[in-house]
Amino acid sequence: MGDEEVMNASAGGNAAEGGAARPAYEPHPFIGGRTAALRALAAWRMRWPGAPRVIVLTGSPGSGRSRLVRGFLMLCEPDFRKRLPLDDMDPATVPPDLPAPAVPDPTLLTAAQVQWSIAEHFGLRATRARDIFPELAALEEPVTIVVPDVGLAGPVRAAGEPARLVRDVLTPLAAVETVQLLTSVPRELAAELAGTLPRGQVQIIDLDDPEWADPEGLVWHAANALDPALGAPELPYSTDPDARRALARAMARRAGPSRLTVQLALQSLLMVPEGFDPADEEGLPADVGEALDLHARRLGADPGTLRLILAPLAFAEGRGLPVELLGTLSTAVAGRDMSQDIADGMLLAAPFIEPVEVAADEDADDGSDDGTGTGTGTGGSRTLLRLMHPGIAEEIRAGLPDVRAAQTEIAMALLEAVPEQNWAKADPYIRDHLAAHTLEAGLLPRLLTDPGLMAHADPVTLRAAVEAVPLEELEAPARTYLRTAPLFTRTQAPVQMRAALLETAFVEDGLGPYAEVLHTLGFDLPWRTLWSVPLAGVSAVTTGSLLQEGEEAGTRPVAALLVPEGTPGSRPSPGERGGPALLVHDLLRPGYVDADPEQVLRPSDEAREAAPFGFSRGADYLTVWARKSRQAVTALISDTPFTGVDLSPDGVLVIATERGVTARQILAPVPAAEPTVPDRGTGTDDIDDTGASTHPDSPTGLEGDHS
């Protein structure tokens, strides 16, 4: 039942079915019990004397942690609590009417994303992650934060994001004395988090412990699910209150503390009631595995077939697996054609699957973006499939003889499904999540030599997967991606810009052939990187030309680099003694030029004015624009501040940072339209190619101030 159905059912919760004494208070209409846990949470919320400042909620998969937190948050949300029968509930389970706590949802997010979402919620001004917690501690009022479903954190299941979230975010967050924290974590992480705090400040609530277990709540849940008045089919054991209550008790008794097992038994029974004997308690599941196997046998199917149908969903990443891929991947795992089994077995699998309809544009960054950040998208929607609970996935994976081998078969099948091995044509799921599958298969380093995949794949997901591989196992292209990916995620760069930034990074790292590949894959790259030198200490750059005599008579485009005195190959700067020196480099190709800096001719003002492009810059971002139309043609942002920038009249952009100097030939066409460039501010960090201050107004996007 959804929240609305639960709320509608609250008046007739069947808490006193079968002649049992009516309880003194009505149960929570969404949770149906958990009185002891709700009392502890309410005391925490009201900062009751002796109550802990931090509560760590844990339990086995399917113990009901998520449901308990959701139900408690209903009591903490001012508008939602008005819909609850608060006057009929145990007062000790109802927290006071306070402002809603902050609830950063970590589902599919990295630890860093969760940390920044907390900073954003409280309006912190921190620009570095390490400053967030001190700023939080400096707030005038204490804050309350609820972090649910830590086990669902991370865009890549095998990358260990829940542990990273506990270590890097929740542990320092819990250490802030003014933070009141409630979090739901897997059992293996609960003691680690709680162990960092003094006794009395933290409490672990393990829903599997007898103190917190809720057998009557399970009975309540099962009885309501079986009630025809609440939507169940009319069956002999559902229409009779005594029979219904007896079956609910048998289900709860058999499943122990596992709410998930009871839920799966109910799903199986209500979807396919044929062949069920309510008098046979052995026909009720004791765990998730039995719920799968008993359902299959009752339908006359092989339990192994059911598990093979569900296996791809047990390994699915993100929001779910596209329905079109289920047959292909089931066949890959099974090693035989599963198409007929799937066609005949949807009723077999139905109790354990839930479909998710998502907008096609929302499913993934589909690679069809034109690179401007606007994105054209495909419109429409698509259906994803996922298992109804992560505990089912754990059971199915645990039942496979070789998880790594299964992931290998899935990864190979996904790779073969890429049309013409062209990532621009790949299904968004394959493009964005193939790396996650190859990570668990141990094959990711072999995949990370494809520049096309690096550009097209969702950078948050691919970065998380690559970071999970030991650095010594990564080849040079993967290490280049790893240092560039933070720039992708920081700027939310579209696919064309990711390709352009990667092209430059490959040249910077001496991987020119990989950069050339990106020019052959159909990307409309705004530049071609001509050369890069790892030269530290460059404080300014100037483009110009040298007059040459002899066989190569004419002018030679060069770049003059202002470097520290004593830099190999440099010469004293004209008119300077004991100060910076100049180093001359060819403008259009790799290689220094042995020339007297006094012979370098700077472009005239007339030449610059006649040039097609100009630029404006900030500390670490830059915009190139067409002089006649004043329209931006490209922009870039650097992961390190600029120390020097110049743009030659023929469109070669030379940029120096603390890492070195790079030259890019601008390829973007000169726009024919003539809109005006937006008004620019007067900040001193933004300087155009004439020396004028031109700070853009916009604080976001590639032209925003990311200094």
TrEMBL record:
UniProt biased composition (Low complexity): 9-20
Region listing for Disordered, in residue ranges: 1-20, 362-383, 669-707
Biased composition regions of type Gly residues, renumbered to the chain: 370-380
InterPro entries registered for this protein in UniProt: P-loop_NTPase
Entry protein name: ATP-binding protein
Organism: Streptomyces chattanoogensis
Lineage: Bacteria, Bacillati, Actinomycetota, Actinomycetes, Kitasatosporales
